Amino acid sequence: MNICVFLSAADLDDRYTVPAREFAELLGRGGHTLVWGGSESGLMKVVADGVQESGGRLVGVSVDFLAAKARADADEMVIARDLAERKALLLEKADAVVIMVGGAGTLDEATEILELKKHGKHNKPVVLLNTAGFYDGLRQQFQRMEDEGFLPLPLAELVFFAKDGVGALAYLEEWFGLQ
User: Residue 38, SS3?
Assistant: First the structure.
């Protein structure tokens, strides 16, 4: 399975890096391919290292202005012209999407992927990996959007909230009938 992971390139503390590493190792041991922003920095590096060291493949999609930070030993690396092209390529190369902790860029990627799914532009499973309750507020906001009629689809059809990497991968394997 090619799993696109949106996440931070920031250096973060153990409450985020340890679960990220555990999830990455699950992906690698499962023989999955990480499709990610290609960065050799922060949490992106932690996840790429974990996948690669556990036997998985790395497919990176960096962007022109960040190409100097792209991982040199990825199995495949594409350099997009801009962020819009990068997001499109990441989605195109993926069978599923997992959104991990991150800042404004990660939130932008997450909302675009969900908006595209809402409009039927893709039907790939989307998982929000809610490490340490990071996305509790966003989940509450999405629930309010559903409750007040802002979402044309039930929230459960747009995104699955997983509390940990085991739950995220189990959901995806069930989605694809791999269990």
Answer: coil
Residue 179 has pLDDT above 70, yes or no: no
Q: Helices then strands (H, E): number in the chain?
A: 7, 7
Separation CA 146–CA 173 (nearest Å): 26
How far is CA 171 from each of CA 15, 62, 175, rounded to the nearest angstrom?
22, 27, 6
Residues 137-152: pLDDT tens digits? 999 999 999 999 999 8
Strand order in the sheet with 57-63: 76-80, 57-63, 33-36, 2-6, 96-99, 126-129, 160-162
pTM beyond 0.85: the answer is yes
- Cα–Cα dist 135/18, whole Å: 17
Helix axes 104-118, 83-93, angle to 10 degrees: 60
Radius of gyration of the chain (CA): 15
Cα gap 71→45, rounded to integer Å: 8
What token pair was written down for 31? 């023989």
Under 8 Å CB-to-CB from 124, ≥6 apart: which residues?
A: 91, 94, 95, 96, 97, 117
